[in-house]
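Appendix B. Chain record.
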Amino acid sequence: MQKFLSKYQCDWGHIGFLIALLFAISFFLTDAFLASRKAENLMMILPVSLIGIGICLWQIRLSVVPRVSDLSDPGRTHQSALNNPSAAPVSGDAAAEPASQTRLFKYRVPIFMGLLGLYLMGLIYVAFDLATFLFIWLSLVFQGERRKVVAFVYALLFALGVTWCLKLMVAFPFTTLFF
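Structure tokens predicted for this chain:
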């Protein structure tokens, strides 16, 4: 263990949180399996849980990086600095900050939360497919997609595909415009 700690740099708080999240996902998945093994009951829980477990394991892997001082290859030092921002050299130049630090960029989280709230309201008062289309399209544009036509077509195809698949899987009716 001491040899491992001397060669690698770990963010133990991040790893601890991810392990707790892994236990929570595993507990929820086990509880769902014990409650019912029917496909209708597990069609959302099983794939999302497996994706969540995979993401947690991948993030744990990314949280363990080689120490910068032990690396002899300059290319790997740069990669380590990308994975661990605290190992990156700090520049005192104010002009080195990203140009995307605009007012909209600073408030992107509250704006996106408001957009998500509008999407949830749209699910109630507007059709599912229209609300999904608008949410995906506005999210893509807000996150910086420059090709408006690509964002529009992607959002339209995604909303239609999700609506069609949901209509096939879910037994109860819900409001849609197209299906």
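Further analysis of this model is presented in Appendix C.
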